[in-house]
Amino acid sequence: MTSHRCIVNVRDDMAAIRLKCNDGTESAAVAIVRTRSFKATIRFDSQPIVSCISPREVHRGFASQSVLSEVVRAHRGAASQMHRVPRRVELNADLPEGETTMSKGKVLVLGSNATRIEVRGGTGPTGNYLNETVVPAMALIEAGYDLVLATPTGTKPHIDEVSDSAVHFGGDQAAYARGKAFWADDPAMNQVRTLRSAIKAGLDGYAAMFVPGGQAPVVDLMQDPDAGEILRYFHEHAKLTALLCHGPIALISAMPHAREFRAALIAGDENKAKEWAKGWPYAGYKMTIFSASEEKWVENDILHAKMYFNMPYALTTAGGKVVNGSVDFEPHVITDRELITGQNPRSDHAIAATLIEALALIPA
Length: 364
Fold this sequence. Notes:
CATH class of the largest domain: Alpha Beta
Helix content: 25-40%
Distance between the termini: 18 Å
Low-confidence stretches: 1-23, 25-101
Largest sheet: 7 strands, mixed
Order of helices and strands: EEEEEEEEEEEEHEHEHEHEHHEHHEEEH
Radius of gyration: 22 Å
Strand content: 25-35%
């Protein structure tokens, strides 16, 4: 039996809707979507053949406060009539016989709640980076995966104001606007749970996890015991684990003595830090992270202060094999077994593509 998936994609307030079948074929479609009930009627060549109700947990990328969308029409992928609609809607469509296509899987996104980071002489502002969070998240949803966002406190991550700029979207104002809207409105970015609740609900159902950067993870995720428990589980079960920019510092939390290790780094006691690092499950892994030279730019131009340690030094002291790219602020991604790491903000698209490619290799 052929199953169908209805997908609406919007670019710059223009939309095209298509029905993808599991036999590889596609057809043009017309759909009417109502935000409150999530009802849709899908038609082909003006003949209604499918009606469905998509529950909230299947419904993606649709702001619950948005208005009733207009009818969207497309012919073989070329839209003949365009209307303003929500940024992205995906509805699982039942055939009359009752078969339903399912999500490809769930990805756990670990965000930070930190807003200040320790620097020599005080603290400086911090947070997750907007592009590092939304670019991979949007790509994963586009690829058919459901996201679950979790943080230490269960509140939405703080976005570093420095990242709230089109500069981090390649200067593309439209991409920046889409990213900001996704962050503000998409349920995946607003239905946040605690790390502990994610653990209690069970981690086996996740196909992968992703940790975005910004310096914030250096403050909380690096030493959070729940983050450590999640990472150890993913490591023990060889589940894909992707981390971007400063995000890979969260791997330290998988140590038995992550807090003591971090304290030793701040104290400048390398020998003590190496002692506390014993038992780290990622020792010997190849990985990348925001480089020391890239960090100097942040220290000089953003924090106006020196950090207590740089990221490659921390991971190397822990036992990781850190490899940075030859050119600062150019995309650089390394994969070693289940671990996928990206070096800097400009690695956002690259790490998303690498993770999605790896997810596609997981047996159904």
